[in-house]
Amino acid sequence: LLFAAFPETSVDDACDAVYASATPIVDSANDRSKASGSHGALNATGALCYLKAWQFTDMPRNHWSCESVGYAALEGIVNGYADGSGAFGVEAPVTREQAACMLYNYLGDGASAPAAPQGDVDQNQWYAGGVNWAVATGAMNGYSASDFGVSDRLTREQAACILANVSHADVDAADPAKFNGLKGTAQA
User: Fold this and answer.
1) Looking at residues 72-100, what average pLDDT do you find?
2) Considering just the CA atoms, what is the radius of gyration of the chain in Å?
3) pLDDT digits (tens, 9 = 90+) for 134-170
4) Are 135 and 118 in contact (CB under 8 A)?
5) Which of 23, 61, 92, 130 lies in the 20 to 30 Å Cα band around 142?
6) Contacts of 128 (CB under 8 A, 6+ apart)
7) Cβ atoms of 18 and 47 closer than 8 Å
């Protein structure tokens, strides 16, 4: 399976991916890991995800996000930088237009949308289709009718609003005091 998906991978890389993605077996009465050298139960999808993530030139093999990044890349939700470096941008912040494109890649199903009305959305740029779709569907609204916020970093509260928009959550009844008390305590 691994070599069919990634013919260029080495045997060592395939083994490392199987080990890295193995699900530990927690059963002290039947634990044979020391005797057998087992790393746990096979997770074939996880191994594929690790191999995909390791194709990015800046992805450390032991990074906590390998399996998730690999999954998102295999699903076409995220890609590396288009500059030819082969880098993913590990630890780099996400811009608003990148977030729009990720949502579009995941949910947009190739749909086209009219040009976003915000003047800072350059229709000749790589992100135009994703931003157009995000604005047209209400997933993202921009700062105003004239400013989407291209090149701005996506903040955590903006991400929360986008997720609520995408899930069509009823946030009108939410008590803002509950959120204010958590300021600065949220975990990544």
Assistant:
1) 94
2) 21
3) 999 999 999 999 999 999 999 999 999 999 999 886 6
4) yes
5) 92
6) 115, 116, 121, 122
7) yes
